Amino acid sequence: MAAAATMAAAARELVLRAGTSDMEEEEGPLAGGPGLQEPLQLGELDITSDEFILDEVDVHIQANLEDELVKEALKTGVDLRHYSKQVELELQQIEQKSIRDYIQESENIASLHNQITACDAVLERMEQMLGAFQSDLSSISSEIRTLQEQSGAMNIRLRNRQAVRGKLGELVDGLVVPSALVTAILEAPVTEPRFLEQLQELDAKAAAVREQEARGTAACADVRGVLDRLRVKAVTKIREFILQKIYSFRKPMTNYQIPQTALLKYRFFYQFLLGNERATAKEIRDEYVETLSKIYLSYYRSYLGRLMKVQYEEVAEKDDLMGVEDTAKKGFFSKPSLRSRNTIFTLGTRGSVISPTELEAPILVPHTAQRGEQRYPFEALFRSQHYALLDNSCREYLFICEFFVVSGPAAHDLFHAVMGRTLSMTLKHLDSYLADCYDAIAVFLCIHIVLRFRNIAAKRDVPALDRYWEQVLALLWPRFELILEMNVQSVRSTDPQRLGGLDTRPHYITRRYAEFSSALVSINQTIPNERTMQLLGQLQVEVENFVLRVAAEFSSRKEQLVFLINNYDMMLGVLMERATDDSKEVESFQQLLNARTQEFIEELLSPPFGGLVAFVKEAEALIERGQAERLRGEEARVTQLIRGFGSSWKSSVESLSQDVMRSFTNFRNGTSIIQGALTQLIQLYHRFHRVLSQPQLRALPARAELINIHHLMVELKKHKPNF
Fold first, then answer.
1. Are 688 and 612 in contact (CB under 8 A)?
2. For residues 716 and 98, what is the distance between their CA atoms, to the nearest angstrom?
3. Which pLDDT tens digit goes with each residue over 267-316?
4. Is there a smaller number of Cβ atoms within 10 Å at the N or the C end of the chain?
């Protein structure tokens, strides 16, 4: 049917386009068909007009001819008008058939209509029900909001009541005095744990009552009397207990540190007194200060007196200085001097007193040392005394801070109230001892002991002794500088002519200096001090001048050089044992030794080989100036030198070696000098060979008698001593 309709439309269009007359004829039958009448929209078409474009008509005709049904109709030769009428007839038949189908289904359509109407009624009722539900939900929501507001208000009232209840509970708990507290305070001994627990509870309640009274709480008056009576009872018991402990310190032969440590377990007792009865707290503190101050003073005075009895009997005096000669005699009533003055300038094992193991070793026990007849230098006694002072002071300071609840300046003041008399007594004793002390090494060791103890006190966080350490150093440093300056002056004023017989061996004064300087340098290396190095520099200058003054007493330059080399070598060797290789003293004496050694080697080679040395220097000077022709006149001199060296060099070297070994006390140094002399001799003879290789002397017959350099080196190695 669709195809037929399409073909009918196409045919109708063709008819309309065929001409006006044909279109009028077709319009009647086509309009007769029901539902098919469509007015032809020609617009402003005017076929008589000049503007009508036939090309457009051709395009439309061509497009319609492309239709498949039109093509088929044209191929079969069907008349389009007849075919159009046939199509219209078919459409009418189809329409009639459709109407009959609708009439047959009218009952079903009516039933469907009724069903749709019923459904609309049901949906309308559902809509009404849902509307009612929505109205009910709105009312329920408002009720829920009302209930929520009521619940929030009730919750606020509940929290307020709970807060009030908590405050009232705290207030009541703070004011109520339980029977357990009363029983413990009145009946329990202070050493029982429950007394301490209830005392803390009493302290808390007393603080709470004071706070509530400040706020104007009337209920505090009901418990104030009970708390006051309990407080008085507790204060009485605590006072008796602490005073009893303090009085126990005074018993003879009592180790006060044991009850002092026991007091720390009851440090809350003093805190309670401090907060509730300050007068009693002050009484206890004053009693403690008075008791411990006397105990420490008595202990240290006794210990110091007994300690000084085990000091060495032989101590340095004002005449035991570096520049004092050993042959000096004293008056008839003078004290005997040290058996050997060198001992006060030698460190030996004394330096171990500042080693970490010895520094904090147990203190000396004087009566044990006396039974064993042991004696100690002053620095050992000083270390023992001050280590005991350091240990007890640190312990006392920490106890004061913890028990008496003080810190900062208050702790310093309380500490010095306890230890002040002891520290003053110790300073007076040290000042008195230093007034007659001339042992610089002992004083310097004491300085370094103090520096190390000060560091230990800082590590233990005990600053209370800082002022004492400064006072001790203020006594030690000036005395050390004074003794050092006295030694410098003694060396400066020493007259070599008063020293008796002289020889080329190291002098005892230079040995004293070497031992003394190495001792101070090795000690100073641990904690360097610039002032010490300056004083040692002054002493070194004076010693160098002294060595030169003594060397000037020898008649020959060779003896002077031997004396200088022996002394420089000895001082350098001693210094290198303790000081570092890069120290100023080592570097200075090394330069002096090298210079004098080189000069001695030249002096040593001059007698047997002086002519050879002079000729080589003169010839090299002529060659350098371009005057080598003048060597032709030296043939006889050269021949004499060649034959003289060849005949006597072995005996000369042997004599030289023996002379060196006799002159120097240090065989190693003597060996080094011999080796240097032989090396310089080989270099001299090699230079002599080069001079003789000049054209002016090359034809000299005596050149055949020259000793081969390598042969000479082999022979000289035989004369090198080995140790």
1. yes
2. 152
3. 899 999 998 889 999 999 999 999 999 999 999 999 999 999 999 888 88
4. C
What does the block give as tokens for 380?
């050992």
64 within some domain: no
Asked if residue 454 and residue 355 are part of one domain, the reply reads: yes
- C-alpha to C-alpha distance for 526 and 660, rounded to whole angstroms: 40
The residue whose two tokens read 């003073």 is 297
Same domain for 183 and 227, yes or no, is yes
User: Which string of DSSP letters, residue by residue, matches 136-192?
Assistant: HHHHHHHHHHHHHHHHHHHHHHHHHHHHHHHHHHHHHHHH---HHHHHHHHHS-TTS
Residues 346 and 464 occupy one common structural domain: yes
Cβ neighbours of residue 188 closer than 8 Å, sequence gap 6 or more = 194, 195, 198
Q: Is residue 681 part of a domain?
A: yes
709 torsion bin: left (phi>0), alpha (psi -120 to 50), beta (else): alpha
Phi-psi domain of 35 (left: phi exceeds 0; alpha: psi -120 through 50; beta: other): left
Q: Are residues 447 and 348 in the same domain?
A: yes
Distance, in Å, from the CA atom of 605 to the CA atom of 683, rounded to the nearest integer, reads: 12
| Alpha carbons 410 and 712: distance in angstroms, whole number | 87
SS3 at position 583: coil
Q: Residue 335, by phi and psi: left (phi above 0), alpha (psi -120 to 50) or beta?
A: beta
Q: How many domains does the chain have?
A: 4
How far, in whole angstroms, is CA 376 from its chain's centroid? 40
The half-sphere exposure of 120 on its side-chain side, counting CA atoms within 13 A, is 6
Tell me: do 317 and 460 sit in the same domain: yes
Residue pair 338/279 in contact (Cβ under 8 Å)? The answer is no
Identify the bridge partners of residue 163 per DSSP, sorted by sequence position. Answer: none
Q: Under 8 Å CB-to-CB from 606, ≥6 apart: which residues?
A: 613
Burial 214-251 (b: 16+ CB within 10 A, else e): eeeeeebeebeeebeebbeebbebbbebbbebbeebee
Asked whether the beta carbons of 64 and 14 are under 8 A apart, the reply is yes
Residue 287 included in any domain: no
Q: What is the pTM of this model?
A: 0.68
Nearest to residue 551, comparing CAs of 603, 516, 499?
499
Q: How confident is the model at residue 327 (pLDDT cuts 50, 70, 90)?
A: low
pLDDT grade, residue 42 (50/70/90)? very low
Determine, yes or no, domain membership for 11: no
Q: Collapse the DSSP code of 311 into the 3-class scheme (helix H, G, I; strand E, B; otherwise coil) and give the result.
A: strand
Q: Which of 427, 440, 527 is nearest to 472 (CA)?
A: 427
pLDDT-based confidence at residue 174 (cuts at 50, 70, 90): low
pLDDT at residue 50, rounded to an integer: 46
**Of residues 587, 597, 511, 586, the one with CA closest to residue 546:** 511
Do 265 and 393 lie in one domain? The reply is no
Sequence-ordered list of residues with C-beta below 8 angstroms from that of 665, at least 6 positions apart, any chain: 505, 506, 566, 570
CA-based R_g, the chain, Å: 65
Non-local CB neighbours of 585 within 8 Å, separated by 6+ positions: 517, 521, 536, 540, 575, 579
Centre a 10 Å sphere on the Cβ of residue 385 and count the other Cβ atoms it contains: 20
215-252 pLDDT per residue, tens: 777 666 767 778 888 889 999 999 999 999 888 888 87
